[in-house]
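Let us practice reading a record.
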Amino acid sequence: MSAAQPTAAPPTGPADPVQALLEAPLSLRERKKLKTRQAIRREAYRLFTEQGYESTTVEQIAAAAEVSQSTFFRYFATKEDVVLTDEYDPAMITALLARPVDEPFLHSCREALVGLVRELVQHERDELLARMRLVVEVPALRARMHETADDPQQLYLAVLMQRAGVREPTFGMRITAASIGAATTETVLRWAEGGGREDIAELVDHAFAILENGFTDLR
């Protein structure tokens, strides 16, 4: 009898649950792009920590990540975008669309976002805090963040339209999306300004409680 031949180990997903969450909605090609984007971002944050944001150049980031500058610019339009953009949108959209369609949208957002934030803080707290502290401390980043303030709003607006099965948003949808986007942005800035000492998941939950209660709780 011949010896049993070893069998190949079955493919496994990423061990990091946050990475698994981010990769779940993506195709294989998109996952490869995600990993390249993350590698560039990791090296950028390392350099920002070691030598400061202003002193770090795109050329240095690209060299550290072992990519060309042209590759860097395929993933990030500017150095500011390394800090001001992230990979969480597809996971957030998936989580929101998984909620019951007849559930109030604010409650869907509250449940989905608090859950996602808890995962992020458990596995990526240091990077998340470093990112938001840069936004607080670097004037150019703070100004650019306000210029792109409608980006979170567009995510919520897209989900609202998909849930309703419409191609054009209503005025009510626009107001809802704008309110949620502004509330979540203010929440992460508050967390960063406090040095990450507060529980960000509780802050997010409180922000949605204020929205759901019609701004009656102004603590």
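A brief commentary: The chain has eleven helices and no strands.
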